[in-house]
Task: inverse folding
């Protein structure tokens, strides 16, 4: 408990939840870290698709592709604003699909989101770890453990509560946004004042590139578009996290979404345009962003500052998942699609089980994939496109049904959005299928089936367990009696306490001893008679070392002989030492025994603590052992 | 259970213990693996001390040192034969010291032996792993895991029972002994027939060596002697393992000890003499043994065969510890110096707890020391010399006291042995102190203190707990009553079962609900009244998420209000699912609750299993839930 408090800080009261809510100022950076970090690579992704095929001709298409992405972003922001209006409890694509498309589409949205959130964590920490290893090659052997450490760091921050994680993780995001804004502004000022000139490529570089447009095709443009769409991930998170915001939560969520849109358009548009003007193409071993900042700032302090915060922001991108997924799991737990434990808040009022779930699965992914971004990326962003498509299509159906003011207008926006994102799903899925997206194609249906199974289980159990009126079986139970069985290891004083207790709860008491040697049994029987204990002693002799099986058999026989409605109570003494380290000196079989006994329907296990302290007087021990009996 | 049976084989009956005993034929190789494996390096250890100081002059001293070691071996064998005669239950140095020297010397012997046995395992598997890595450098990154795998392999073999491990591990030892015997015989025949000639060293090798005798000193000779004494480790094991042998156990143990002595003298003497005749000196990157076998057999099949079995025998040397230590721990557990669990046999009648203890500590050592023989060796063989000295000195004292036929003769043998091995302790300790033996100098007293603490604990507890006659407190307890508290999470059918049971054991029943929200509490109170349950409902409202603390507080208050001799029984429903995987869908707090409740002296925890299967009819469930009540 003390270690827990040290790591997590003081427990919070339930009423403190208001203080745990996010203001607009801290909500923005928390929601933005994923989206903003993708600016660090979205433009580059477009060029990486185009340049190998059509060389510098790529520069003709980049502006149009970037514009389309920004248009799609606007559609998504308008669409998610409407979702926030209509679904104030959060849940985004899942709730929209549930209401407008039915159960299975909603499970499709939920599993896609779960997978994509976790992939976000794995990909972000892996690329942050790769960035650090690139800077310090000496750390290569611990690359995986670096990534794991990042996951643990973000997990701990989130377990400490939303407010604290907001301050911890929000500040670097603001710094990163500020740096990029400075980069864009200074870059354009230097371009306009003529102190900065586009790259000039030497012929031996451009020769390597095809300059004909023969490779150009619709598929190529679509693939470039789909790759660039990675800039859009993270938009969904706001609509999942509404309950995390200060009141008026919906209004604040919409404001944050709008600001987020503005930030993405400014940063993505600005850096893409600047890269275009500077004619930068992807080069191995460095990024577009770092090339731009070298050109704009030279090898100055600001260049290194941006590099450092690019690494930090990649770690923080993981944080977006920690804000969105636990709330989604909470909603799913509420609807009975995931284990109910996900609906509990921890001592700091965060959804600690959801946070731990992300932590464990992300670490597994990082370890299995060796913290390699290259191997993880193909699994990424399929899920988010599926959820975009479903939420757009859900809203499309909603307007069609509602037909309130301006419905046709809204319907066509969402319809267009659904179509464009559906194309995104197909392009991303097909182009990355062999590289790993096939795993997602298996994982999503499996997850849907599991959630469906869980839901059926809860429904059946809930239905059957509901207590509507007082049951006749209870009234019949006036005659219910229990038979006590005291498990005895050897004749010692703990027997007094057990027998004491057994006599209090039952008028049918047996002492049971399981014995491995016949001679030992005889001796025990004799000692028993000598002591004159007023209780039956039953000895079961087993030829094996294992005593669980003969116990089980004995209990089975006794259970079969029970009268209607009666039960067996097995009393197990648990030796409690004054010092925790003394516990290892006494065989601890309590839980093994309890587990076996619990398999029997009419048998309860009674764990009777026997506090014994060899360091105090016999008289004191007697008082401890037998309660307040003597005053 | 099924995995356990698969790994360990079918459980054995207690009466099968006879079939688990070792014959002479299988006992010899099991006891010999450690001693025989040390032949692979004992001669070399002597040369490694001498050659750097006095060069080829070493050859003058090696025969005398080897002879002294063999003489000491003879003394040890005679001495341990006498120990076997007088201490038939095993325990060797520990029992001898306990009877003749007192408690603390016996604990010194016990801790020295425990440490040395475990060091044997760590050193053997590490050097086996190094041998394999030397042959296949590609395995270097997994060197530690190879050593860990060897430990697990030997552990598993031993858990399967003595008989099975004897066959598994005995055969390779015989093969190795056979190979070495062949090597010695063929070597001497070839020397006599003149087809084999001593090494001739080129001047540039001998120039590097000092040929003057200036470095010669008594300390040097003693250090060489102490290093060579590593050939003696493993002799102790026979006297610890007597109960493992077939009847007549003492006779068989003595026969095995004598045969072991013969084997060591033949192999150690033979290889040392052969090496001497061939004038072999230690060379980096290869061993004396492999140099001899290259010269005798050339690069033939037999050479590789010997190399292979040298690696295998190093793994098997670990096995000696698995035969001696669990029995020593059994005897110590019996005397109350180590936790009692070490006296239990497993399903295969091996001392499974002792075996697991070796496994865990050895793996820890291997991992911490990076499976490096070089770093482990300084910690090795101090312990075995201490135990030799104590057992010799103990026997010396025994003869002095007994004064039976020929006592003076026996006394002087053991006295001389004690003196020589005491010198061994001093030389080994001082020459290896800085390199790591200081850890042993700390570990041995710490272990002694722990064993002493455990002994005091058991003595006090045992004394106080003994039940000599029937206690008055028991008779007073006719008035003992228990008050039942049903822990309720929500109103559902499990409540019926708990109330049923609570009413059977007590006439004072409370239903307790711990609630986080005041509104929720009001609603529950209303539902409770509507249902008309004939029991008190108490609701504790907590502002925090944690429910354990308020429960603890509530129980404390109730406990304080108890009448003399009464107790509280807290009923906890445990939801048991038909399928194990459904268990994760229901919050499992049973053990947390039980742990907190057990801290209270007058409170017992009753775990009531609630078997619920959503896949069967409501009528069937009702029958399952409420027992045989309705027929």
Result:
């Amino acid at each position: 408990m003390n270690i827990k408090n040290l790591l997590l800080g003081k427990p919070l009261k339930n009423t403190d939840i208001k203080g745990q809510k996010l203001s607009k100022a801290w909500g923005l950076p928390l929601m933005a870290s994923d989206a903003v970090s993708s600016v660090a690579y979205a433009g580059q992704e477009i060029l990486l698709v185009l340049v190998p095929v059509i060389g510098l001709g790529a520069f003709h298409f980049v502006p149009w592709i970037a514009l389309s992405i920004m248009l799609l972003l606007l559609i998504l922001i308008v669409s998610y604003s409407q979702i926030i209006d209509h679904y104030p409890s959060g849940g985004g694509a899942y709730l929209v699909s549930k209401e407008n498309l039915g159960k299975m589409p909603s499970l499709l949205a939920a599993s896609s989101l779960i997978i994509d959130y976790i992939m976000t964590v794995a990909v972000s920490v892996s690329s942050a770890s790769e960035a650090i290893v690139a800077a310090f090659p000496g750390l290569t052997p611990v690359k995986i453990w670096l990534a794991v450490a990042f996951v643990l760091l973000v997990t701990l921050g989130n377990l400490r509560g939303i407010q604290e994680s907001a301050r911890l993780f929000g500040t670097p995001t603001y710094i990163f946004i500020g740096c990029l804004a400075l980069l864009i502004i200074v870059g354009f000022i230097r371009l306009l004042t003529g102190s900065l000139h586009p790259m000039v490529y030497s012929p031996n570089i451009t020769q390597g590139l095809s300059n004909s447009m023969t490779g150009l095709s619709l598929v190529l443009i679509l693939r470039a578009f789909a790759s660039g769409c990675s800039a859009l991930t993270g938009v969904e998170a706001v609509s999942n996290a509404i309950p995390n915001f200060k009141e008026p939560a919906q209004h604040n969520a919409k404001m944050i979404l709008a600001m987020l849109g503005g930030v993405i358009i400014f940063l993505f548009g600005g850096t893409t345009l600047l890269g275009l003007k500077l004619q930068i193409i992807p080069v191995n071993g460095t990024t577009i962003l770092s090339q731009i900042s070298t050109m704009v700032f030279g090898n100055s302090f600001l260049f290194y500052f941006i590099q450092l915060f690019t690494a930090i922001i990649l770690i923080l991108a993981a944080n977006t998942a920690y804000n969105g997924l636990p709330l989604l799991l909470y909603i799913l737990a509420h609807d009975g699609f995931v284990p109910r434990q996900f609906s509990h808040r921890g001592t700091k009022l965060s959804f600690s089980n959801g946070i731990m779930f992300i932590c464990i699965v992300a670490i597994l992914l990082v370890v299995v994939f060796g913290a390699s971004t290259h191997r993880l990326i193909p699994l990424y962003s399929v899920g988010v496109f599926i959820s975009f498509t479903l939420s757009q299509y859900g809203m499309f159906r909603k307007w069609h049904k509602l037909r309130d003011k301006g419905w046709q207008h809204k319907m066509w926006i969402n319809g267009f959005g659904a179509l464009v994102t559906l194309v995104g799903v197909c392009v991303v899925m097909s182009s990355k299928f062999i590289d790993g997206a096939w795993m997602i194609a298996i994982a999503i249906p499996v997850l849907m089936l599991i959630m469906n199974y869980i839901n059926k289980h809860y429904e059946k159990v809930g239905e059957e367990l509901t207590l509507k009126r007082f049951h006749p079986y209870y009234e019949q139970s006036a005659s219910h009696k229990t038979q006590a069985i005291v498990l005895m290891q050897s004749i010692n004083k703990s027997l007094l306490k057990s027998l004491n207790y057994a006599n209090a709860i039952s008028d049918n008491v047996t002492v049971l001893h399981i014995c491995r040697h016949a001679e030992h049994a005889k001796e025990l029987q004799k000692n028993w008679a000598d002591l004159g204990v007023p209780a039956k002693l039953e000895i079961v002799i087993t030829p094996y070392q294992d005593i669980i099986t003969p116990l089980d058999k004995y209990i089975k026989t006794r259970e079969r002989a029970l009268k209607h409605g009666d039960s067996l109570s097995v009393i197990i003494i648990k030796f409690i030492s004054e010092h925790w380290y003394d516990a290892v000196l006494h065989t601890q079989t309590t839980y093994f025994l309890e587990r076996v006994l619990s398999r029997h329907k009419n048998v309860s296990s009674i764990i009777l603590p026997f506090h014994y302290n060899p360091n105090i007087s016999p008289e004191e021990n007697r008082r401890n052992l037998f309660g307040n009996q003597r005053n």
Chain B has two domains: 2-459, 482-625. Chain B has 23 helices and five strands. Chain B touches chain A through 100 residues (CB under 8 Å). Residues 407-465 of chain B form the longest helix (59 residues).
